[in-house]
């Protein structure tokens, strides 16, 4: 019996893990910043609700919509992970994808790893400060095609919680109905890995070449997802071995029955 940990689910950070931080900062953030003012003038109930939330979070009761748009733009400049900004950016980027003006980035190893996990029966989820809708749109419009069918669930700061809070990872475990010890969380941020580990998850760091050199402490780490999967010691989980055995047994049984008919 393998001593390697049994992993039933992988949870992936996006920015700096599956995807280039530079791409996001050079393309997506400026694109959203340039369109915030126009979006906030649309006056739809959804936009109104996001502006009200912005006013509450920024401590700007009675601010005009133009003032709130300026606050949202400042949050873009600060890379603030505030939910109303993330929701608004998701809406802006959705229109950009539809118009063919933006494309999401994933590293070349990502589609390969997602297909490997699918074939091995490991469910893959994402956890990002980007809104759930933005995450879904991101994977639907990558430079490697539509990868959304390879993902199970997306989690953000609304449906899970802050990324450096262990409770967020416990919430994800409950939501996907997998014990934390059978979940591998991958991220480029040690603080997120620490939080996931405190919730009982297995962890692995991603040192992407363009990211600053990072001290992952006691967390194993890799340079791409395959490397990280191996570094975490999860290359062949017990569950995978069992599933493969089941497949082989089923194929053998079918072959036997076919041969019996032919005879
Ligand atoms: Mg990250």
Summarize the structure in short.
It contains 10 helices and 6 strands. By secondary structure, the chain is of the alpha/beta class. Helix 6 links the parallel strand 2 (123-127) and strand 3 (154-155).
Can you describe this structure?
The chain has 263 residues and is α/β, with parallel strands linked by helices. The chain folds into two domains: 9-17 and 104-235, HAD superfamily/HAD-like (Rossmann fold), CATH 3.40.50.1000; 22-98, Transcription Termination Factor Rho, Rna-binding Domain, Chain A, Domain 1 (Orthogonal Bundle). The chain has ten helices and six strands; from the N terminus they run E-H-H-H-H-H-E-H-E-H-E-H-E-E-H-H. Helix 2 crosses helix 3 (65-78). The structure holds magnesium ion (MG). Residues 13, 15-17, 187-189 line the site of magnesium ion. It comes from Dactylosporangium fulvum.
């Amino acid at each position: 019996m393998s001593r390697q940990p049994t992993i039933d689910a992988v949870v992936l950070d996006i920015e700096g893990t599956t995807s280039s931080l530079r791409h996001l900062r050079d393309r997506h953030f400026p694109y959203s910043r340039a369109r915030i003012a126009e979006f906030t003038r649309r006056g739809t109930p959804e936009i109104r609700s996001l502006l009200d939330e912005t006013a509450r979070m920024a401590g700007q009761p009675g601010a005009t919509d133009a003032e709130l748009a300026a606050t949202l733009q400042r949050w873009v400049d600060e890379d603030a992970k505030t939910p109303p900004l993330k929701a608004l950016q998701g809406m802006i980027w959705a229109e950009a994808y539809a118009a063919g003006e933006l494309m999401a980035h994933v590293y070349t190893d990502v589609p390969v790893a997602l297909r490997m996990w699918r074939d091995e029966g490991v469910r893959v989820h994402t956890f990002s400060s980007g809104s759930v809708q933005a995450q879904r749109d991101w994977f639907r419009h990558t430079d490697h095609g539509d990868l959304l069918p390879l993902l199970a669930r997306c989690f953000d700061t609304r449906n899970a919680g802050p990324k450096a809070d262990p409770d967020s990872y416990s919430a994800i475990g409950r939501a996907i109905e997998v014990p934390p010890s059978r979940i591998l969380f991958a991220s480029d941020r040690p603080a997120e890995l620490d939080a996931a580990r405190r919730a009982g998850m297995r962890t692995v760091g991603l040192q992407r070449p363009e990211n600053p050199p990072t001290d992952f402490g006691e967390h194993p780490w890799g340079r791409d997802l395959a490397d990280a999967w191996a570094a975490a010691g999860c290359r062949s989980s017990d569950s995978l071995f069992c599933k493969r055995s089941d497949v082989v047994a089923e194929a053998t049984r079918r072959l036997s029955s076919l041969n019996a008919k032919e005879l």
